[in-house]
Design brief:
- The complex is a heterodimer of chains A (156) and B (423).
- By secondary structure, chain A is an alpha+beta fold.
- Chain A has a single domain, classed as Heat Shock Protein 90, CATH 3.30.565.10.
- Chain A contains 6 helices and 5 strands.
- In chain A, helix 2 packs antiparallel against helix 3 and helix 3 packs antiparallel against helix 6.
- Chain B has 423 residues and is of the alpha/beta class.
- Chain B has 3 domains: 63 residues, Alpha-Beta Plaits (2-Layer Sandwich), CATH 3.30.70; 278 residues, no CATH class; 63 residues, 3-methyladenine DNA Glycosylase II, Chain A, domain 3 (Orthogonal Bundle), CATH 1.10.15.
- Helices cover 36% and strands 11% of the residues of chain B.
- Chain B is built from 15 helices and 11 strands.
- In chain B, the strands form 4 sheets. Chain B has a 4-stranded parallel beta sheet with strand order 6-5-8-9.
- The longest helix of chain B is centred in the first third of the chain and has 17 residues.
- The radius of gyration of chain B is 23 Å and the shape is globular.
- The chains are: A alpha+beta (156), B alpha/beta (423).
């Protein structure tokens, strides 16, 4: 997790802070929050390759909430030099994060796998697309993700 | 810095009365009504032709090549899209249509389906040689290419870096005919016979090469009556000719699913129609679509047979194409090794990469854009949400966006539900 002093420093330069709710088990609307994030970033005019990375990472994070948790909140925070996606959920938590980060490892039920999800690539995929990826989890309480993607500031 | 953006449709100012039909039908929200006339926002238009289909006043004209334009060339070649084989019923054979077309003033009419078959083989080769990234997206439909550049700019690198069959066929013909008849390539006029106006954009403003190998595109609608007249007159005369110059495999490219039919492996998907294409590209952008090797997207419903410049009912046209595939689709006309040799020589490759061309953001300055985004949300909350279009923007959200973009003379009073109408 980011230290509180760092958060304070960042808050001074936050230029956009939006929140979206995610409902656990709602596969019909699953993906809506990350879609909103994507469209906001397009309207602001960020570089296409940055938006693509945010789109993939936020979609994976959102679907993890849909698949495993009761509910969650996705936050989009934009500063002058980075995008921060925070996803906090109320759910079962992850007992062994190191194991969960391994490609192919999944605790998804057969039902979820039948729907084409739960291939165990979610967290590794988020990490691949993030510049900084922080994950914290408490069993029976929930999981907090922080995905940071740096902006290429020379174009702005 | 920026060259003017070219589009393949033109609004006739006399016929247009400024109704909202085209504006509402536009999938990229590229049309506004100003001073009672429809106006196209050039940066948002992808040349899909939806406006052309729906205009009740016939006020939108496709800017295709006129048949008389072919006379500026010494040798005139017709290169019809295989769609044309579906336009005159299932009894009329491709070879008869090619002959009838030639009669319209062309020196030769060639089958584009042969090039479709070649490109099918080349796609297979491309997929083997480029294991990543996935999915690879087809480059055949010029509207899909524009759509990706504009709406999904992060996906341009997924478009297959190979020219579509019409360009490959024209490239091949230009080389071979100039050699055979010993005339300069510039004396050859090669014209695509097209089911859609969008080909004019890829011919006049190619994204992937300096100059297109085609010299123009003539609408199927424009030549339909003349071809029909000749087909009727000559009835059975051509039955003696063989079908050897037509590819049954390539004919399938006229319908959705035709391009992927020739590709081995089961992780290939075909999508048609503008809204379904936008939906699936959105899913690809989010990484939701996994384990798919090749994605064929065609903007028109059911593929090119659903093009806005076709005449035949598209369901009958589809049935005719399926019947032709059954008759001629079993036999390869093209030698795989020959295609591989051409592939080695980069015969199919783009000259240059496709560039992303995203819609203009709310403001070039990021901080200003965010301010406008918030202002837009605030305005939108106060709008009625009826999406009537009377203000001249396609829906309330677009109206709010136009307001924050400071469109000249636009005020919230334009909304008939909020203030006095300025209409």
């Amino acid at each position: 997790m980011v230290s509180s002093t760092l958060i304070q420093r960042m808050e001074t330069e936050i230029i956009l802070n939006e929140e979206f709710e995610i409902t656990g088990g709602d596969f019909i609307n699953g993906g809506a929050a990350s879609c909103r994030v994507k469209n906001i970033l397009k309207e602001i005019g960020l570089a296409p390759e940055i938006i693509r990375r945010v789109a993939i990472a936020s979609y994976e994070a959102e679907m993890n909430v849909v698949m495993y948790a009761k509910k969650g909140i996705m936050k989009l925070i934009l500063t002058s030099d980075k995008i921060i996606i925070k996803v906090d959920d109320e759910g079962p938590g992850i007992p062994d994060i190191e194991l969960a980060m391994q490609p192919g490892y999944s605790t998804a039920t057969p039902e979820i796998r039948e729907m084409g999800f739960g291939a165990g690539m979610g967290l590794p995929n988020i990490k691949k697309n993030a510049d900084i990826f922080n994950i914290n989890s408490t069993v029976d309480k929930g999981t907090n993700l922080e995905i940071i993607i740096n902006l290429n500031t020379k174009n702005d | 810095m920026t060259e003017p953006i070219y589009h393949s449709v033109k609004i006739n100012e006399t016929k247009c009365i400024g109704c909202v039909v085209c504006m509402k039908a536009c999938p990229t929200k590229a049309i506004r009504i100003k001073q009672r006339k429809a106006r196209v926002i050039a940066e948002r238009c992808i040349d899909c032709g939806e406006c052309l289909r729906v205009c009740p006043y016939n006020a939108i004209t496709p800017l295709t090549t006129q048949s008389s334009d072919i006379n500026r060339f010494k040798m005139k070649i017709a290169l019809p899209s295989p769609v044309i084989y579906s336009q005159f019923g299932s009894e009329v054979m491709p070879y008869d249509i090619l002959n009838a077309l030639k009669d319209l003033g062309f020196d030769y009419a060639f089958d584009e389906a042969l090039a479709c078959e070649m490109v099918s083989i080349a796609i297979q080769e491309y997929l083997v040689r480029n294991p990543l990234p996935r999915p690879i997206i087809s480059s055949t439909c010029p509207v899909v290419v524009r759509l990706i550049q504009r709406l999904f700019p992060g996906l341009v690198s997924l478009i297959i870096k190979m020219e579509p069959p019409r360009e490959i066929a024209a490239k091949n013909l230009r080389k071979e005919l100039s050699r055979e008849y010993k005339i300069p390539e510039s004396d050859l006029g090669i014209f695509h016979i097209t089911p859609c106006p969008a080909k004019m954009v890829s011919i006049n403003r190619p994204e992937t090469m300096e100059k297109s190998y085609l010299d123009g595109a003539i609408s199927i609608k424009e030549i339909y009556n003349q071809v029909m007249a000749r087909l009727k007159k000559k009835e059975k005369k051509f039955l003696l000719h063989t079908q050897s110059q037509v590819s049954g495999i390539g004919i399938g490219w006229a319908i959705s699913g035709g391009e992927i039919r020739g590709i081995k492996g089961d992780s290939v998907v075909s999508v048609s129609g503008v809204y379904d294409t936008i939906k699936i590209l959105g899913d690809v952008e989010s990484g939701k679509i996994k384990n798919i090797d090749y994605l064929e997207c065609l903007i028109c419903p059911d593929g090119c047979i659903g093009g806005p410049l076709t005449v035949e009912n598209r369901f009958l046209a589809k049935s005719t194409i399926l019947s032709l595939i059954r008759q001629f689709g079993g036999k390869n006309r093209i030698d795989t090794n020959y295609v591989r040799q051409l592939y080695e020589k980069n015969f199919f490759s783009f000259e240059r990469d496709i560039k992303p061309k995203p819609f203009p953001p709310l403001d070039p300055n990021k901080n200003e854009a965010i301010k406008k985004l918030k202002k837009k949300e605030k305005i939108l909350k106060n709008l009625p949400g009826i999406n009537c279009g009377v203000c001249g923007s396609p829906d309330c959200e677009s109206f709010a966006e136009d307001l924050v973009r400071n469109e000249q003379g636009l005020t919230v009073g334009r909304c008939v539900f909020l203030g006095e109408s300025n209409l």
